[in-house]
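Morning F.,

Quick status update on the modeling queue. The single chain you submitted on Monday has been processed. Sequence for confirmation:
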Amino acid sequence: MSITKLLIANRGEIAVRIIRAANELGIKTVQVYSQADATSLAVEMADEFVEIGPASAAKSYLNVEAVLKAAKDTGADAVHPGYGFLAENAEFADAVEAAGMIFVGPTGQMIRSMGDKASARKVAESANVPTVPGSDGIIEDLDVAQELAASVGYPVMIKATAGGGGRGIRVAENAEELATLATQASAEAKAAFADGGLYLEKVIDNARHIEVQILGDGKNFVHCYERECSIQRRRQKVWEEAPSTALSEEVREKLCASAVALAAAVNYRGAGTVEYLYDETSDDFYFIEMNTRIQVEHPVTEAIVGIDLLAEMIKIAGGEHLSFSQDDIVVRGHAIEVRINAEDPANKFMPSLGIVGDMRSPGGPGVRFDHFLYQGYQISPFYDSLLGKLIIHADTREGAINRLTRAVKELKLGELKTTAPLFLLLADDPDVKAGAVHNNWLEQWLENNIGKLTQ
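Structure tokens below.
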């Protein structure tokens, strides 16, 4: 069944990105929006638009009934959830298909198997994919959690089995902290994802965060190589690049093959990302989770392999098979993505609200700026702070860093405070230039360099 009209159940830059992909495939689009997003760029770009509720995400973008009604009323035959909000909600995927429409993504059952982190560990183990030492499933009892933590060794990471974005995660150094932090993590996860389930993993100190982009049509599965996302603040990715500087070709081959094996184990359909921790000291990698959706950082992969991942998602959902094999996917050059957030890095990353003034988007060879901004746009206080993503591609990593510096300097958003100045400093840092970073590196760097951001 081919798709003729696609409803976008999301907002911001990913909504704009989906509309563009659909337009290039000749598909009409319907944009849902909250009252706070009535003047959004996605609303202006879509063929049709429907208001689904007030600013509160719980009453609009997370309102399954309102989203489905908008799809039915406009005659949409498919729904794309983007990332966040309902993207990894198995019940929503089921409800879309029960209403006679196509969910652009994996089935509800696949989301349950792989979107739930505890369940995904079991699938990974059955597919002989190495996992971080930890609980086999959801931890129901504190005594059991403390006993397990003692056996694998502190520190341990308490992780929400649902959701993502760094929420519902705590690190406990001892049994007393475990008791306190488990309660906090469960409450945060329940508020964010309506699921307070937790599991435990041993902390792998100063690991690299490596993820593999996969595509599957239910029968055929490929990887699009890896991205490195080690530069993080509070477990939120800040700077992503591909390929990773840390991996040997032998480890890269094993890592990517394990991601394909995991996708094949559940007959995966759509785009997904398999995330790993890589321990440079031992040259070992460990599966940590799978995201059953498109990732914020997907353009990094698009830049190095030349595949439109959003278009592939839509075509697969419409019943098409993958049109290429693993041998057709070749890495070319190096890509970096940085997240331009409405935050002031010189003031403890406080949110920055206001109106976009004189705006200048960076351009030139190898520069892409995915965003939803225009001059006069009022930054909303109701959603996350991501304004756009600056994606750079060059023949070499050194060339990509130089091009990034040039592009960041070109970017102008009036008087808005953004994270852009941070990336000028990072691009000039010796450790970043050498690729010598890990998932705790940025937090340590900020402690020592915060003064440079205020100069």
